[in-house]
TrEMBL record:
<feature type="domain" description="MoaB/Mog">
    <location>
        <begin position="188"/>
        <end position="327"/>
    </location>
</feature>
<dbReference type="InterPro" id="IPR036688">
    <property type="entry name" value="MoeA_C_domain_IV_sf"/>
</dbReference>
<dbReference type="InterPro" id="IPR036425">
    <property type="entry name" value="MoaB/Mog-like_dom_sf"/>
</dbReference>
<keyword id="KW-0501">Molybdenum cofactor biosynthesis</keyword>
<dbReference type="GO" id="GO:0005737">
    <property type="term" value="C:cytoplasm"/>
</dbReference>
<dbReference type="GO" id="GO:0006777">
    <property type="term" value="P:Mo-molybdopterin cofactor biosynthetic process"/>
</dbReference>
<dbReference type="InterPro" id="IPR038987">
    <property type="entry name" value="MoeA-like"/>
</dbReference>
<dbReference type="Pfam" id="PF12727">
    <property type="entry name" value="PBP_like"/>
</dbReference>
<dbReference type="Pfam" id="PF03454">
    <property type="entry name" value="MoeA_C"/>
</dbReference>
<dbReference type="Pfam" id="PF03453">
    <property type="entry name" value="MoeA_N"/>
</dbReference>
<dbReference type="GO" id="GO:0061599">
    <property type="term" value="F:molybdopterin molybdotransferase activity"/>
</dbReference>
<protein>
    <submittedName>
        <fullName>Molybdopterin biosynthesis protein MoeA/LysR substrate binding-domain-containing protein</fullName>
    </submittedName>
</protein>
<dbReference type="Pfam" id="PF00994">
    <property type="entry name" value="MoCF_biosynth"/>
</dbReference>
<dbReference type="InterPro" id="IPR036135">
    <property type="entry name" value="MoeA_linker/N_sf"/>
</dbReference>
<dbReference type="InterPro" id="IPR005111">
    <property type="entry name" value="MoeA_C_domain_IV"/>
</dbReference>
<dbReference type="InterPro" id="IPR001453">
    <property type="entry name" value="MoaB/Mog_dom"/>
</dbReference>
<dbReference type="InterPro" id="IPR024370">
    <property type="entry name" value="PBP_domain"/>
</dbReference>
Length: 626
């Protein structure tokens, strides 16, 4: 089997679509109660068994009359008719309208015998002799005849109709309480790997454990496509258990999805199960991501093996599998699954394979969509929310040019571009600030990278901290000061920067894109000038200077866990985690707005909050408004 695992004969994406589409995952139709029929698809035609309405009824308040008795009546020459009685909605009439008489009637009431029209109350006047009619009506005026809405025997709804509240209303009017619908394909979901833990259970990060992302992500995608997801326990790397679960899922489901089974041993298990009970139809697709995709059958069930990285698994599912699930469930392709935009920046791509490039969306000042690559890598689960979809890049494409028109296939029809796109420094006060904006997206790339993306015109705002905040010419809409320094273990005995350099302490730094890192390096330069040595010598004396993290709390978390004695951070973080703090100064944090998008509503709202930050800084040590 080793030749198969080498993916020697990769199928084209077109072949993969055909193979997946050929899988039989159609479920049997079923009958559901009307209360559970919303969003299902009718399996067969529904005809009306009754007239709707089932009786002639008044369509407005007024008087039921013989139309002939009103002929010639007008404002100048009304006719006066006697009142024989009243008819109310929901009651069987107990009055007959003889010629020369009328019956007072309510909207929706049954027309009494003898009457063939209704005169609206506004065209009548009560008198001592009866009621004065000031208009003429023809037979049928202001009356809905029995079956006028839909008549018994008529075709009400056809097969394939997706049931929305409108259709539920019609079915209710017909008295239908059980609805024949297309079955939803049962889709079994298996995630493999010893490192996986289901959310809600304790996580042992020291042992390399991670929460199971794919099972829940794929279950949501299956449900959105119209399938019924069934999550099975993950098998870890117990290959006997994996085989048992594959058999169980195949016996119970129309389609089995696995993700993460990319090791040689795991693939051996999948091959063995497929060869014993089914057929392998495809192994490997010439597309990035998704090269190791498997397609086949296990008994009467279809099987698709997806990549292990969450973004790759979701991308391949949406591209190749979701259309088959929608088709089996009778769902039409979502109308808003693809949007068009232009590339915000140039993106190079040197590989010959077709690429499904994760991409984010942002609206420019005119409301047009800009598309930018999301390049965290398939293994980053935050790419699931940082990316809105993917761009299908044909093989042989060297680059996508800035301004080039592209189509983005959305990960979900519900995806909408963020109202505000920001990039740059991460900061606890910034998190509170973003909470004041509806549907923002913020990428904490660090001050340096945020400024680079800002200069390329991608984000609406960039947040810049430290020295970089003072040397950038842009539209500044506000900011704050934050106290920074060393977050320390109370037992460490670090009192100043000199102690860190001279002592035997373990240190955790921030990455070079962070504004904190630049301020720290400047502080080292100043200490070096005092001592008459270069920064390199001081760096060599710090155990862990090269150990960097990307988030503002991460060094402090290392200290809290006992893995370090000191970390670069903020007073606000030290106070939050009840750790010691050695202040090394304050630094500005500035919010820079793209000049072309200063008038966007979200940017304007942010600027208003920045103008009065007092309430947001309450309880945050070391944070001061301008």
């Amino acid at each position: 089997m080793s030749d198969r695992r080498e993916f020697r004969d990769l199928a084209s994406p077109e072949e993969a679509h055909e193979v997946v589409a050929s899988l039989d995952i159609d479920p049997a139709p079923e009958t559901v109660p009307l209360a559970e029929a919303r969003d299902r698809v009718l399996a067969e035609r529904v005809d009306a068994d009754i007239d709707v309405p089932g009786f002639d009824r008044a369509s407005m308040d007024g008087y039921a009359v013989h139309a002939r008795d009103t002929f010639g009546a007008d404002e100048a020459d009304p006719v006066t008719l006697s009142v024989a009685g009243e008819v109310h909605a929901g009651e069987e009439p107990d009055v007959t309208v003889e010629p020369g008489a009328v019956a007072e009637i309510s909207t929706g009431a049954v027309m009494p015998p003898g009457a063939d029209a209704v005169v609206m109350v506004e065209r009548t006047t009560e008198t001592d002799d009866g009621v004065e009619i000031r208009t003429s009506v023809a037979p049928g005026d202001n009356v809905m005849l029995a079956g006028a809405d839909i008549a018994a025997g008529a075709r009400a709804l056809g097969p394939g109709t997706r049931i929305t509240p409108r259709e539920i209303g019609l079915l209710s009017a017909l008295g239908v309480d059980e609805v024949p619908v297309r079955g939803r394909p049962q889709v079994g979901i298996l995630s493999t790997g010893d490192e996986l833990v289901r959310p809600g259970n304790p996580l042992d990060s020291a042992a390399g454990q991670i929460y199971d992302v794919n099972s829940y992500t794929l279950a949501g995608a299956v449900a959105e496509a119209g399938g019924d997801p069934v999550m099975y326990p993950h098998a870890g790397d117990d290959y006997e258990e994996m085989e048992r679960l594959l058999h169980e899922a195949a016996d119970e489901c129309d389609l089995v999805l696995s993700s993460g089974s990319t090791s040689a041993s795991a693939v051996d298990v999948i091959y063995r199960v497929i060869e014993e009970r089914g057929e392998l139809r495809l192994h490997g697709v010439a597309v990035k991501p998704g090269k190791p995709m498997l397609v086949g059958t296990i008994g009467d069930s279809a099987y698709v093996g997806l990549p292990g990285y969450p973004v790759s698994a979701l991308t391949i599912f949406q591209t190749f599998v979701a259309p088959a699930v929608r088709d089996a469930a009778g769902r039409d392709p979502p109308q808003t699954a693809t949007v068009s935009g232009t590339m915000a920046v140039q993106e190079r791509y040197g590989e010959g394979r077709r690429r499904l490039m994760p991409a984010g969306l942002v609206e420019d000042e005119s409301g047009s969509l800009l598309v930018y690559p999301v390049d965290k890598g398939s293994g980053a689960t935050t790419s699931l929310v940082d990316a809105d979809g993917f761009v299908d890049v044909p093989p042989g494409t060297d680059y996508l040019a800035e301004g080039e028109a592209v189509d983005v296939t959305l990960f979900s029809p519900a995806v909408r571009p963020p109202t505000l796109l920001g990039m740059g420094e991460d900061d606890p006060l910034l998190s509170r600030l973003l909470d004041t904006v509806s549907r923002p997206r913020y990428l904490p790339l660090g001050s340096t990278e945020g400024v680079r993306r800002f200069d390329n015109g991608v984000p609406d705002i960039a947040v810049v901290a430290g020295p970089a905040a003072d040397d950038h010419d842009a539209t500044d809409i506000g900011g704050w000061q934050r106290e920074w320094g060393l977050v320390v273990s109370p037992e460490a005995g670090v009192a100043d920067l000199g102690d860190l350099v001279d002592g035997d302490y373990r240190f955790v730094n921030r990455d070079s894109a962070s504004g904190l890192r630049r301020s720290f390096d400047d502080a080292l330069d100043a200490l070096g000038e005092e001592r008459g040595v270069g920064r390199a010598e001081l760096i060599d004396a710090i155990d862990g200077y090269e150990l960097t993290t990307k988030a503002h709390e991460s060094p402090a978390r290392k200290v809290l866990a006992g893995d370090a004695d000191a970390g670069l951070g903020l007073r606000a973080t030290a106070a939050k985690l009840d750790l010691g703090f050695v202040s090394l100064g304050t630094q500005p944090v500035r919010v820079l707005a793209n000049p072309d998008r200063r008038e966007k509503d979200s940017v304007g709202s942010l600027a208003e909050v920045l103008a009065d930050l007092g309430a947001l800084t309450d309880g945050m040590a070391g944070m001061e408004p301008e």
